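Run log // design_07
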């Protein structure tokens, strides 16, 4: 198996940007998140076995401007004054290190930071739970399902990383981003 394409580290980041041009508001959101200098490639949502979560600061030290960087990203944009937009990333890590986990992403409108966080965390945990054959009622609320997941001992950690913002009152484009950044350095700094 070729380990060079299995991420060894991951960090999470988020940002918001505002500008009169849509694309430039996205650029400013990436700058706010600290990832504007990379060529970002969106990928689907698997947390690699054995991957280590590190801080944004440590992750950025391992990367170089212009580098092609794989990420799971959510983004939402609006030019409507006061419209609430949200971008969120959820994570569910299995207890067994050889098992993969899940990352979820969601972007939308009208969700508070807490609602978006619960939503993406629930999606990631639910996807992992079905993979691990944890029995739960999908119609139960997330707090009830979270207890089932914890009691199973199969899911060790869940988290959410969310950015929300209200549309600029003067109609500037407002962009929110949240991302899980994959690093493939396998110990190289």
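design_07 sequence
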């Amino acid at each position: 198996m070729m380990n060079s394409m299995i991420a060894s580290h991951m960090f999470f980041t988020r940002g918001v940007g505002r500008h009169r041009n849509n694309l430039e508001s996205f650029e400013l959101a990436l700058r706010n998140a600290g990832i504007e200098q990379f060529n970002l490639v969106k990928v689907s949502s698997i947390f690699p076995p054995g991957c280590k979560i590190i801080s944004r600061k440590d992750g950025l030290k391992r990367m170089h401007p212009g580098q092609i960087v794989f990420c799971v990203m959510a983004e939402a944009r609006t030019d409507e004054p006061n419209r609430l937009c949200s971008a969120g990333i959820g994570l569910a890590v299995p207890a067994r290190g050889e098992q993969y986990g899940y990352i979820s992403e969601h972007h939308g409108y009208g969700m508070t930071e807490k609602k978006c966080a619960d939503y993406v965390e629930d999606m990631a945990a639910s996807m992992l739970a079905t993979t691990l054959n944890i029995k739960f009622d999908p119609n139960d609320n997330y707090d009830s399902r979270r207890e089932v997941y914890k009691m199973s001992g199969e899911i060790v950690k869940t988290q959410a990383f969310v950015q929300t913002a209200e549309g600029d009152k003067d109609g500037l484009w407002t962009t929110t981003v949240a991302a899980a950044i994959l690093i493939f350095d396998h110990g190289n700094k």
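The helical segments are 22-33, 56-61, 113-131, 142-152.
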